[in-house]
Amino acid sequence: MKVALTIDAEHPDMPVSDPLGNAHSLLDVLGDAGVPTTFFVQSKWAAAHAELPTRVVQEGHLLASHSHSHCVFPLLTAPGVLYELEESRRILERFGPTANRFRFPAGQGAGDKSLQPLLAQAGYRHIGWHCGGNDWGPGRTAAEVANPIVTYVRSYRRDVTVVLVHSWPDPTPEAVSQVLTQLRDEVEWVTLDEIPESQWL
Fold it and tell me: How many domains does the chain have?
C-alpha cells in the first residue's frame, strides 16, 4: 500500500500554543523518519514565515498551493478566484514549483463545477484526501488524531491513500510520529508526484 501524507500549512484556524514551533517539530519528525510529504501551503502564510517553506523544499518535500488567503472559494467572483490562484503561484514560486497541485481551503469548492474551468485556466487541479484525524479540533490528543488515520489505512487498504493533517495544531507532530511508527512496516510513504494523477482525488 502507498500512503501520501499531505500537510496543509496555513495561518491557524484557532489559538494554539506555538504554531510555528509545531510546524518545525513536524518537519523534524518527518526528517527523522525519512518520510517525504506534500505541503499545501497558503501563500500569505509563506510570505510571513519564509523560513518554513524554504525548509520544506530544502528537506525534499513537495510544494503545492493552498490558495493565497485561505478564503471560501465558492463565495468569490471569477476574478477573485483567479487572483487567489495567481497570487499563490507568484509567491510560492519563490520557494519552489507547485506544478498543478492545489487544494481548496477546507475542501470547499471541490464539487463546484463553475470553479473547475478557473482552476484549469490557472493551471491547477484540486487534490482532496481520504482521511485525517481532525487535528484542528480543540482539545484533541495525539492519539485521538493518529488512531483514526491508522485504522482507516489498515481497514480500507487502498492502493493509494491520501492523508490530511495540518502544520499548526499542537498534537500534530506527535500524532504523525505515532502514525509513522504504527504503519512503518505496512505502507510505502510517497509524495503526490509518485502516484498517477488518475489516483489523485
Answer: 1
Q: Is 102 exposed, middle or buried (0-12, 13-18, 19+ CB in 10 A)?
A: buried
3-state secondary structure of 117: helix
> Coil, helix or strand for 165?
strand
Enumerate long-range contacts of 56-59, CB under 8 Å, 24 or more apart. 56/9, 56/27, 56/95, 57/95, 57/96, 59/27, 59/30, 59/31
Global confidence as pTM: 0.96
Q: What is the pLDDT of residues 192-201, one digit of tens each?
A: 999 887 777 7
Query: The domain containing residue 97 runs over which residues?
Result: 2-199
Contact 89, 82 (CB under 8 A): no
Query: pLDDT tens digits, residue range 54-67?
Result: 999 999 999 999 99
- One-letter amino acid at 50 equals A
Which three cell numbers mark 196? Answer: 498517477
CATH of residue 126's domain is: 3.20.20.370
Report how far residue 192's alpha carbon sits from residue 127's, in angstroms, rounded to the nearest whole number. Answer: 9
**If 0-12 CB within 10 Å is exposed, 13-18 middle and 19+ buried, where does residue 195 land?**
middle
